[in-house]
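Narrative summary of target 7.
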Amino acid sequence: MTETAAGFLTQEAYDRLKAELDQLTGEGRIDIARKIEEAREEGDLKENGGYHAAREEQGKMEARIRQLTELLQTATIGETPPDDGVVEPGMLVTVEIFGDEETFLLGNREIADGSDLQVFSEKSAMGSAINGKSVGDETSYEAPNGKTIGVKIIAAKPYTG
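Modeled conformation, tokenized:
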């Protein structure tokens, strides 16, 4: 899921992302401005690879700042949910779909920082269908292609990172 705005974040993930945003908007901007100025002083900007690389880095940094700002303004912040078998944001969920088991994190991908764990937003079709269900429950959701997909909740444990 590539959704960046809204969704559930643990307090730990929120704090980590806020620190990253503070670094980018403070030291990060000062550092990139210095790099651009140093490259500019090297001469002709048309053929100045260092200048163009610094400007590209600046563009990527500003995009990340916008992403983090929007995410932190719209996210729902909460503690790791209780281990009660009820599916909710912040849970590592195992479901059975088409006879196969699939495990993923329900919430925002920023919670699983650095992990290759698959993440589904609680606002996605499957996320909405399973949110609030308990282990053993069966439900279904409509896929983007219009097909109805049955899902059985196998396990739901708090994600601890």
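The beta strands are 8-10, 76-78, 91-97, 100-106, 119-120, 138-142, 148-158.
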